């Protein structure tokens, strides 16, 4: 599974960071950084939840 972000849509609300901090982080410039674009199996449920919870629907999954 791969996760990606549309930087033009993302407002860096950090909801995803709160749900899956092992996969998502914010840079010093308040831009979303995906630490693990290839999602480890053990993080899949958290990442799916983060994608569903994004208030701007800026995250996408490719399974």
From TrEMBL:
SUPFAM superfamilies: 4Fe-4S ferredoxins (SSF54862). Keywords: 3Fe-4S, Electron transport, Iron, Iron-sulfur, Metal-binding, Transport. It comes from Actinomadura namibiensis. This is Ferredoxin. Gene3D superfamilies: 3.30.70.20. Its cofactor is [3Fe-4S] cluster. GO terms for molecular function: 3 iron, 4 sulfur cluster binding; metal ion binding. InterPro entries: Fe-S_cluster_ET. The keyword Electron transport applies.
């Amino acid at each position: 599974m791969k996760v990606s972000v549309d930087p033009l849509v993302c407002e860096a609300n950090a909801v995803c960071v709160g749900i899956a901090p092992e996969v998502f982080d914010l840079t010093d410039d308040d831009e979303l950084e995906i630490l693990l674009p290839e999602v480890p199996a053990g993080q899949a449920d958290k990442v799916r939840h983060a994608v569903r919870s994004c208030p701007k629907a800026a995250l996408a999954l490719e399974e």
